[in-house]
Amino acid sequence: MRRVLIADDEANMRWVLERALSKAGYDVETVEDGQLALDRALAERPDLVLVDLKMPKRDGLSVLKTLKEYYPDLLIVMMTAHGSTATVVEAMKAGAHDYLMKPFDIDELLITVSKAFEVESLREQVDYLKGEVQRVGWQLVGNSDTMKAVKHLVERVSLTPATVLIQGESGTGKELVAHAIHTLSPRVNGPFIRVNCAALTETLLESELFGHEKGAFTGAQARKAGRFELADGGTLFLDEIGELSFNVQAKLLRVLQERTFERVGGVKTIKVDVRIIAATNRDLLKDAQEGRFREDLYYRLSVFPISVPPLREHREDIPFLVEHFLEKLKTYGRSKALGPGVLTQLEAYSWPGNVRELENVMERMLIISQGAVIGVDALPVFDSPLIEGKSPGVFMLPLEGISLEEIEKSFLQQAMEQTGGNQSQAAKRLGLSRHAFLYRLEKYGIDPHWGI
Questions:
Q1: In this predicted structure, what is the pLDDT of residue 388?
Q2: Could you give the CA distance from residue 439 to residue 427 in angstroms, rounded to a whole number?
Q3: Is the pTM of this model over 0.85?
């Protein structure tokens, strides 16, 4: 229940206002002077203050200005029978939401108060949307030029009703991009419905998308609304769109063209207002050209294509992603940090599973690591630990030559850093016995107790 504080030195006016607003469903409190109004509002913040301009101890303008210092968003409506236009203007400049000129009737009062709360509701929605924008900006992690380009496309297309086709390898975050588009769009208050087209058989998928009537097939014991109906007014995300059968593709094409369909087993045409975002890890254009996907549907879907890059193409974002996952996975216990050499190893991996694989690795490391620091011993054994295009043990000799001693010393230091000073692991990483490794440390004056 909304709380309204009324401040007026006329007892009859307080009684009339309290009775009218209470009857309208508000929780009302009244006071007879400006100081009491200020004390009560500061002690327990009301949702709206209805304050008279001329009052003992403190006038309404003083109350308004003081309350606005403490509660900038507080709704305050000024009442006056004496104020000139200049006074009303001053009150509005000081932050009054509206004003009532005495005498006013009850309907005018109720409309003014109701509209004030409507404005507050809109403001709350704006604050929510701002929070969503910040959340999405955080979720689409990365400061590389590649990720900045993706964010730019998301921001541009989100404000339009265009159909979007998101392409990228598995694990790159295609659903996250789809959700970002929905969140930043005018449809944010509508539903975001996801369908994995690869997870269902043709019959089940058709029923999931378009719904079915009772008795449409064996097991259809009641009418069921499909995902298109559930997504009305919002966004439908069709993941793995390339797995659709030709029969379902034909029906989807009609929905994209006409925004109408019939439930399975039904004859009633249903019209919906749905934005379509599709995603695929396949080369859909190639599939269309080679007859594995309807070409007309492809061009309907790819009105605005967005390609999400694999992680190996924006490695510079790995530190930001790691930091993000460390924060996200705090639920496993206290905050943890990476030990020496861990980030270097993560940056050197080719990440065939992309961002999803990185998140899974971070989760595993957090679970098995002890203490507040995640060491290299928590790293999994990667199948392909080196950056693509680089083979172990093969190094190109520059034309200007190199110093073998400097190279050897550098590798010794890197091995100690990557293993957090673990001599046995560092030696193994360089293919040396522990004795030979310690000999070389001594040779180059490297502290054998590195990091300990």
A1: 44
A2: 11
A3: no
